[in-house]
Amino acid sequence: MSEEETKTFTSYTLELKDTSDLLDQFQLCLEAYLENPSHSGNAVTCAMLAWHTLEWHLWDICASKDLFLIERKNALDEHKCLWFIKDIAEGTKHGRDLDKKKRLVFSHRVQNGEFGPDFGEGFLIDDIFLTEEDGATYRMSEIVRETEHFLSSAIGSKCSDSPRS
Q1: Do residues 26 and 53 touch, judged by C-beta distance below 8 A?
Q2: Superkingdom of this entry's organism (predicted)?
Q3: Segments making up each domain of the chain, as ranges
């Protein structure tokens, strides 16, 4: 980016200069969320930051909108965690207008750490559980960790080679 483009860009992004700056913010949010993994607000904020970080990264490496869309689809197809992140991030933006045929998250439940109904079950951990329509259930804390690992690997290896720099 030229100096003028950077100045214009950062006037909209409040001094976040590039994708690695946004990744840093996602990682800070992730740390806060993992301290209290049943906190829905932090989980949603993590998902939004992760989704935006992925899209910023793809714009960094893609020379056209068509290539951006192809690469986004490839990332989603290769990393299921990104589907959950996408659903939550787009759900905060579009709400009821989401295409229900394309979403992965069917329902969720928040579990606060406590002993299970049967004392023999032991202590239940804090987390948010996301469920697909087929009943498969995933922990939000694991989804955001997997997403962070993917983004850190992708951005660390490709941002410096950006055709848009």
Answers
A1: yes
A2: Bacteria
A3: 3-96+140-161
In this prediction, residue 145 carries a pLDDT of: 95
**Which residue's entry shows tokens 């690695």?**
20
- List phi, psi (to 5°) of 114: -170, 170
Give the predicted TM-score (pTM) of the model.
Answer: 0.75
- Tell me the mean pLDDT in the region 102-129: 57
Q: b or e along 6-33 (b: 16 or more beta carbons within 10 Å of the residue's beta carbon)?
A: eeeeeeeeeebebbbebbeebbebbeeb
What one-character-per-residue DSSP string does 119-161 give? GGG-EEPPEEEEE-TTS-EEEHHHHHHHHHHHHHHHHHHHGGG
Residues in the chain: 165
- The dihedrals phi and psi of 6, each to the nearest 5 degrees, come to -65, -45
